[in-house]
Amino acid sequence: xxKKIIFTxxxxxxxxxxxxxxxxxxxxxxxxxxxxxxxxxxxxxxDVGGQTLQIMENIQAVLDAAGSDLSSVVKTTIFLKSMNDxxxxxxxxxxxxxxxxxxRSTVEVARLPKDVWxxxxxxxxxxx
Length: 128
Known about the structure:
Distance between the termini: 20 Å
Shape: globular
CATH class: Alpha Beta
CATH architecture: 2-Layer Sandwich
Number of domains: 1
Radius of gyration: 14 Å
């Protein structure tokens, strides 16, 4: 099975040797998104709520570039700098997955790229 690299200017440019997303067959593996504003390349917000909103918008942009949307997401992983931020992240995240939410893992980590508060990665099925 061949792989297809997904790229869009509407999501942050990779800050290392990785792709925004890779499609293999009907599966889409999206790299973790942090709260980088795709226009400026800077962190969009100093707080976890604003960062989560930017991340979800970035994820939507990558899915759109793959010809898909949030309804195709089957698995997410949320990385938090502090589990104390879980209620706020969960509230915002839930607004994007109102019905039939994907499977999810949430873990607290010591540090994230650019010292952000949250990072989210997804796997999507492009079969509709």
